[in-house]
UniProtKB/TrEMBL annotation:
Residue span of region Disordered: 233-257
Protein's UniProt name: Uncharacterized protein
Alphabetized SUPFAM superfamilies for the sequence: Nucleic acid-binding proteins
Lineage: Eukaryota, Metazoa, Chordata, Craniata, Vertebrata
InterPro entries in the cross-refs: NA-bd_OB-fold
Basic and acidic residues composition-biased segments: 247-257
Organism: Danionella cerebrum
Superkingdom, taxonomy of origin: Eukaryota
């Protein structure tokens, strides 16, 4: 279906497949659904017929990159603030497709996606790791780390421990370069991406080890959005704060060579 066709569907409709180019701006945050922390990322997708907001949940948060084109399969429509949006579900699939080269696409979300890069030192931190059943997504209250098998508290299926996927959340008090102290929410995707890149994926099972590692890391750069969520963690210092994003400003001719 095209985006214009999807928008004409109304809410709570299933969409077998819609293709779109993901705009560079995205917003990540954490919400609580049925008592379980979930991470979501809102992106704007567009094709030649229009654009719309798509919410990527949990495992799909890292499935797309800005400016690339994807086929979104088995998604469904929602109504929010009188606009039809799309949302992934447990059976969704996201596959990269050839660049759709959408002309004149404008993310038009600049005001809601201001982000800053902070050179930061972590002064205080709390990391929580929840295990979730990959079959039914239920949060496990009594998961014994190091056990080989575990019975899901939701669907009651006994499964290998690896079927229970860790989900990190937490908060951090950080000191920035100008000695200001700020509190931020940590997202699962930022923590997982950082630890994997640093070759520390093993720490994902140990919240205390993550806390200690980040407290001892002197030079971190955090990408923080307006809602005070940390969207990315990197090693090294930020050169300078990122100016508010201006989607139109892509002319490279003014760059110094
Ligand atoms: Zn389950």
């Amino acid at each position: 279906m095209t985006i214009a066709e999807v928008k004409a569907l109304g809410p709570k409709q299933k969409v077998g497949e819609v293709r779109g180019q993901v705009q560079p701006d995205a917003v990540t945050r954490t919400v609580v659904v049925n008592g379980v922390d979930c991470e979501l990322k809102e992106v704007v997708i567009c094709d030649s017929t229009g654009q719309m907001t798509l919410t990527l949940w949990d495992r799909f948060v890292n499935a797309v990159e800005g400016s690339k084109s994807y086929a979104f399969k088995n998604v469904s429509t929602r109504e929010r603030q009188r606009a039809i949006t799309l949302s992934t579900g447990p059976s969704s699939l996201v596959e990269e497709v050839a660049d759709m080269k959408v002309a004149g696409a404008s993310g038009s979300r600049a005001e809601s996606t201001r982000k800053v890069l902070l050179s930061a030192t972590v002064k205080g931190i709390e990391v929580c790791i929840q295990r979730r059943c990959s079959a039914c997504h239920a949060r496990q209250e009594a998961f014994a780390e190091k056990s080989k098998l575990h019975r899901c508290e939701g669907c009651k299926l006994k499964q290998a421990a690896s079927a229970f996927v860790p989900f990190c959340s937490g908060k951090a008090l950080v000191a920035t370069a100008d000695a200001e102290q700020c509190g931020f929410q940590l997202t699962n995707s930022a923590l997982c991406n950082y630890l994997r890149r640093e070759g520390l994926a093993d720490l994902l099972l140990d919240s205390e080890a993550i806390e200690e590692h980040l407290l001892e890391s002197r030079d971190l750069t955090l990408t923080v959005n307006e809602d005070r969520y940390v969207e990315a963690i990197e090693r090294g210092s930020a050169e300078q704060p990122l100016a508010p994003q201006q989607p139109e400003e892509r002319d490279s001719s003014s760059e110094q060579l």
